[in-house]
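so my prof wants the structure for this chain in the tokens format not the other one, which i didnt know existed until like an hour ago. anyway here's the sequence
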Amino acid sequence: MLHIEYAYWLIAAFLLYTGLRNLRERHGWHAAFWLVLGTLFGGGDYVLSQQASGNPLPAQLAGIGVIVLALLAPRLHRHAHVESSSAAQRLQSAVRLGHKLFVPALLIPLVTLLVALFGAHLIVAGHGVFAAPQMTLTGLALACLVALFAAAQVAHAPMLDGVAEGRRLLDAIGWAALLPLLLAALGEVFTQSGVGAAIAALAGTFLPTGSAFACLLAFALGMVLFTVIMGNAFAAFPVMMAGIGLPLLIHQHGAHPAILGSMGMLCGYCGTLLTPMAADFNLVPAALLELRSPYGVIRAQVWSALAILAITFVLMWLLVFR
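here's what i got, hopefully its the right format
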């Protein structure tokens, strides 16, 4: 049976490979960062099992490892990699392969969707092939392996070249590769710690709660602000909905829940365009395109984000209370 733990072990193996290659090339800070991170990924199950049995030491060591990552992150700087082929050779290969280059990329969502939809029905010798918990993530990991194999077949190249290129991209992205993982955890922390209730209390104190316009403006700007902080509108949404959306806009002023929710998320997406915390959208493209400034993508999006936010708020005001 395929469990999500297998995916974590594969990630750990890749991170350890990246660290060892950096160590071999004498990039010490990069090597230390990826080796520590790989160890944390690989040892997660052991830490949980020891914590459940009453031994807190592995969990404490894991916490120290996270602190070490935070200390190492500022020392990660882009460094040159030995190119396996020239730019002219890569362009010639891309022209020769044409649309076949899209096959590996399209296989990732396709295989993930197939596992999510039909994985529970795939049974061999009376046992399910995929474990029910986190089946979609397990399917995503399997899809990445299928895509790697497909890319090697399409390009007529050894699979190790794909691993080496992945390592090059990981070094180019650096610590920002961890932001989606950390921000997802931050959103859960905010939700569980009652930030929504705190926002509701602040809104009741400082907002003219009798004004639907003021409450709606606070909700829209709050979605932008919390998305900027957390880099993810999905993490900001439950916080703002619990603090302002439900108690003030829906219950008190009769706002339409579906319109408020959908357009409120669009306000949050405007915040995504403005923040480096949304690493996948803003920092990673800057690193891959080797822009002079890591914030070049954000600067190009600022006016678009503000214009979309203004238009969205006007439409919310016209539609949400109908």
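also thought this was worth mentioning. The mean pLDDT is 85.
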